[in-house]
């Protein structure tokens, strides 16, 4: 999709003709159609696809949902950074909403341009034809990924009973600079996501998944399919896709405290179905940097947000994730040193990616990992009426993280699955959407302290009902100004 005010960040510069001589081009730019002359050109577009995806995960696209949810408290020195989502007071012109929408639609503009351009390329031989087919599969995978992200954040949560009328997001597959697309229904968006997944499955079938892959593989397609079908309440489909990954044996769960910690702190990739390539100093990712705020000169931390006590306490002391996800250390807030408080430490920065002797919080972004697959398999199995498989997958994850097996059924089992999902995927951007899927509101509770956090009904005691309209983000106001056919979400 390309709105009138958004310029495409295409892989090869595109000329905007400003003179009468349309036959001449600058030495460093070409017209976009000229960038599809060969399969090699298609490869350049594919490389750009990966670069742009690296810029569309982590950072604002991950932590905004967690800041909005119920696991964090704003410190007194947070400076109103991410304050709108945290207070639930943000409007449709908030930079969070604007940027998340724009960055992903910008990527979709390029993908649609790619797919159209690829059809004009004539491969020289069978080898080139196979290579071009692979690039097409990558583009379809990425388009499914972005549209699913967008419809989850800006559309109604999928409900099989109302999806044909609920509003999703504008769905555009062919670029039209003069078009004013209305919002497609949730079902129409999901139908397109599934169609793109189908194309990606077909074209990437021969790209075998391996742990730590930095390129899209058939396993990455399955991981996306499992996630999408979980959100669709297609329990059988989600279960099948997730169990295919689990049963492949290619992504064994880490089962030691050191490996679980280094999975995050040192970017061990044995559980990663897809991560994205980064390198220092010039190809670094977005960072989840709001949780530590390390002051190197004085050797203390000044975080914007700290985890609530109930969150830290939900991890048993023998849970390997506790010391991987959290750090207990000194903070400096309101001009005073505060000793012995927990901070989120899931993203401390991988030393191999530092650009100085101080952390830059950079990590290889984990797009899909096997821990999520176990949780999808457990939840889907439970909802499909197969409690035996649900508890099998739940216990496999628990035991790998240092915990004992449980023997539960009914509501207690489902609560245990939800709790394990909350713990395993903490601060990876899932919590707000999980609460929406489960039709649960929340009340922030049990902070570590009230001495140096923001307090009051917009902060540490914030209460939100399950049907609060701001669980779904508003359509960015400037898009509605440019395109009057876009209907705003209720409550914005």
From TrEMBL:
The keyword Membrane applies. Its main location: membrane. The keyword Membrane applies. Belongs to the SusD family. Residues 340-492 form the RagB/SusD domain. Residues 85-230 form the SusD-like N-terminal domain. It is found in: Cell outer membrane. It comes from the Bacteria. InterPro entries: SusD-like_N (IPR033985), SusD_RagB_dom (IPR012944), TPR-like_helical_dom_sf (IPR011990). This is RagB/SusD family nutrient uptake outer membrane protein. Keywords: Cell outer membrane, Membrane, Signal.
């Amino acid at each position: 999709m390309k709105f009138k005010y958004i310029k495409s960040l295409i892989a090869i510069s595109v000329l905007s003709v400003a003179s009468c001589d349309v036959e001449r081009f600058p030495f460093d730019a070409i017209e976009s159609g000229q960038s599809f002359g060969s399969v090699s050109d298609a490869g350049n577009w594919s490389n750009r696809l990966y670069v742009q995806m690296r810029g569309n995960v982590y950072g604002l696209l991950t932590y905004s949902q967690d800041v909005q949810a119920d696991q964090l408290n704003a410190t007194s020195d947070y400076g109103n950074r991410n304050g709108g989502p945290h207070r639930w007071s943000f409007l449709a012109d908030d930079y969070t909403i604007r940027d998340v929408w724009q960055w992903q639609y910008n990527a979709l503009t390029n993908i649609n341009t790619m797919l159209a351009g690829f059809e004009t390329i004539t491969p020289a031989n069978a080898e080139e034809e196979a290579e071009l087919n692979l690039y097409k599969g990558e583009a379809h995978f990425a388009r499914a990924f972005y549209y699913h992200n967008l419809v989850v954040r800006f559309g109604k949560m999928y409900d099989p009973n109302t999806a044909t009328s609920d509003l999703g997001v504008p769905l555009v597959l062919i670029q039209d600079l003069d078009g004013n697309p209305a919002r497609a229904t949730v079902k129409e968006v999901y139908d397109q996501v599934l169609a793109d997944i189908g194309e990606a499955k077909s074209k990437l079938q021969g790209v075998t998944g391996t742990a730590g892959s930095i390129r899209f593989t058939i396993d990455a397609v399955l991981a996306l399919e499992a996630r999408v079908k979980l959100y669709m309440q297609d329990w059988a489909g989600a279960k099948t896709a997730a169990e295919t990954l689990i049963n492949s044996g290619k992504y064994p769960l880490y089962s030691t405290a050191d490996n679980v910690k280094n999975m995050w702190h040192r970017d061990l990739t044995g559980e990663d179905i897809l991560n994205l390539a980064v390198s220092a100093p010039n190809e670094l990712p977005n960072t989840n940097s709001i949780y530590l705020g390390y002051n190197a000169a004085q050797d203390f931390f000044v975080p914007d947000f700290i985890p609530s006590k109930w969150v830290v306490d939900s991890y048993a002391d023998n849970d390997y994730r506790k010391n991987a996800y959290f750090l207990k250390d000194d903070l400096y807030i309101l001009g005073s040193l505060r000793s012995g408080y927990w901070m989120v430490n899931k993203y401390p920065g991988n030393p191999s990616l530092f650009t100085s002797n101080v952390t830059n919080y950079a990590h290889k972004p984990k797009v899909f990992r096997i821990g999520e697959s176990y949780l999808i398999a457990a939840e889907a199995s439970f909802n499909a009426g197969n409690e035996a498989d649900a508890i099998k997958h739940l216990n496999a994850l628990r035991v790998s993280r240092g915990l004992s097996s449980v023997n539960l059924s009914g509501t207690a089992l489902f609560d245990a699955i939800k709790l394990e999902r909350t713990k395993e995927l903490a601060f990876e951007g899932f919590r707000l959407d999980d609460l929406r899927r489960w039709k649960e509101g929340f009340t922030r509770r049990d902070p570590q302290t009230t001495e140096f956090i923001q307090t009051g009904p917009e902060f540490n005691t914030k209460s939100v009902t399950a049907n609060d309209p701001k669980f779904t983000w508003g359509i960015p106001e400037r898009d509605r100004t440019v395109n009057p056919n876009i209907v705003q979400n209720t409550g914005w």
